[in-house]
Amino acid sequence: QAHLVESGGGLVQAGGSLRLACAVSGDSISKLAMAWFHRAPRDARQFVAAIAWSDVTYYADSVKGRSTISRDNAKNTVYLQMNSLKPEDTAVYYCYARTTDGDFWGQGTQVTVSS
Fold first, then answer.
1. CA distance linking residue 112 with residue 105, whole number of Å
2. What is the chain's mean pLDDT, rounded?
3. Nearest to 89 by CA among 35, 22, 5, 15
4. 20-31 pLDDT, tens per residue?
5. Are strands 57-59 and 46-51 parallel, antiparallel or unpaired?
6. Which of 9, 69, 76, 83 has most Cβ atoms within 10 angstroms of its Cβ?
7. What percent of the chain is modeled with pLDDT above 70?
8. Biggest CA pair distance of the chain
9. Best CA proximity match to 52, nearest among 77, 78, 34, 74
10. What does the alpha-carbon distance between residue 45 and residue 83 come to, in Å, rounded to a whole number?
């Protein structure tokens, strides 16, 4: 079974950048669909970005043009580069993997953007 561990969150000023990483063990990301979601306080978990096994990418309108999802198959890690961050990007960010054994989530990493 896949195990996902996120890192890279933190406190950043508005306009700044962060790169989140999702290290995967137990399965090869090269054949997986991977995604990032976030959950803001008092809100439901929402889709942010996804990358298919074919490397086709998808983005929520709220981050399109400001974020880039990518994968490094050699490191078995998926990244989310976030630029021009806004206070409304403040949330816990979760990595997600769809595998043949089911769906798996990481524990989340907190991103806080100050105004």
1. 20
2. 96
3. 15
4. 999 999 999 998
5. antiparallel
6. 69
7. 100
8. 42
9. 34
10. 21
- 41 by DSSP, 3-state: which? coil
**Residues 85 and 9: beta-carbon distance below 8 Å:** no
Partners of residue 71 on adjacent β-strands: 78
Residue type, 53: W
Report the 10 Å Cβ neighbour count for 46: 12
Query: Is the pLDDT at 47 greater than 90, yes or no?
Result: yes
Distances (CA, A) of 46 to 35, 49, 67, 73, 91: 11, 10, 15, 25, 10
Label residue 19 by pLDDT band (50, 70, 90). Answer: very high
Neighbours of 19 (CB within 10 A): 13
Query: Nearest-CA neighbor of 66 among 42, 92, 36?
Result: 36
Q: How far is CA 94 from CA 21, 40, 50, 115, in A?
A: 10, 11, 12, 23
Amino acid letter at 12? V
What would the two tokens of residue 70 be? 């990518």
Q: According to the model, what pLDDT value does residue 58 have?
A: 98
